[in-house]
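I would like you to sit down with the record closing this message with an eye to the fold:
=====
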Amino acid sequence: MSSAIGTFLLLGASGDLSGRLLLPALGQLLDAEPERRESMVIGSGAEDWSQDAWRERIRSSFAAGDVSEETTDAVLTRTRYERADVTAEADLKRLVAAGPPSPAVYFALPPAVAVAACTAMKALDLPDDTVLALEKPFGTDAASAASLNRLLADLVPENQIQRIDHFLGRATVLNLVGVRFANRLLEPLWNNTHIDSVDITYDEQLTLENRAGYYDRAGALTDMIQSHLLQVLALVAMEPPAAADAMELRDAKATVLRACHPWNGDPVAAGRRAIYSRGSIDGRAVPDYVAEPGVDPERHTETLAELVLGVDNWRWAGVPFRLRSGKALRSRRKEIVITFKPAPHLPRGLTGDLPPARLRLSMGPDQMALDLNVNGPDDPMELDRATLDANLSPGRLPAYGEVLAGLLDADPFLSVRGDTAEQCWRIVDPVLECWRRGAVPLDTYPAGSTGPDAWR
């Protein structure tokens, strides 16, 4: 761990994100790397919690993450809770000074509150090595993302800002870098001469799950495609970086995203959207999305989105990148599929279907599979399908554990750079505008189906 980080300051410590994801991941990280236990953990929130209540929150969160008693006890001896209004200058000054410098400040807050806290923080004299971590969404469009970036730049340098996208900590996403760049067999084929299409899919069986306050204002395109899946696209499509470090990787991703645009430059035709209606998933009854608590039917929020993008450069010209994500679907499908172009010629005498080769990278469980055409088991002149598969490393830590490690190391390798956040909005803004004015129909699909019938 970098000696600069002495305090992990968690703003919004009493919230769901902290209890369900951040604190368990922090405990798992400290289990894996006990030398980090010297950092002080300070939680802050608007609730008037006692120190015992805060310690119980840590204990229960760590227990949910199967964190060892040794780590739990070590953290409990070096933690405290501070009630504070994080939008007030005086309270923020007190929080930043509450532990040894320099702090890693995690804004586990609603976006508007995080912006207000950053605005108030402008009046503070932050320690030189302070690192700030913010959860998505990074703005609501390209203009607001640029405004947020200007605000953050007034606080600390860009390399001390970590825009957290836990997807970048997923083992499969990180494994993609190794699969691409450590195999001479693949990289020479990784272009429009040999690849026909790329599909990045994140279908879920989960429904709204009491998240209407956020999700009904965001929808599937903003919640998943604008953020997570565009980051995955950048890793799939980027040029080989000179080094696997923050500067090289983030430069390569930014270059790709600047070249992305709706397919054929048509934001109407490039996207599709749908909303789930009443159905069932694995025998569980699911109501209409618009009947879910907290949903405003007048928003016409999509729960399934598909966006086809082009990458306007030499390597990828003419190759469609199809990004899809949705809720309340029949099955979980979380994968990257690289479909190669068909063989240009089949020798006479060979028979059978000849589907194209496909490389599939599954995101949980972490697996790689290569579908190929081979000679059949009975008649060697009749082609059959075979799959070569391998289990990929699941990683030593969950996704949030990996991004927290980067935060405590002050290493932005797994974070989203400011210009990249703006580019992600620039790509989807024209599509969202078309959807807002009703230029693209809102299709429906029964919960528990694969999506609208017309999409098949």
In short: The two ends are 50 Å apart (CA to CA). Residues 212-237 form the longest helix (26 residues). The CA atoms of residues 12 and 109 lie 5 Å apart.
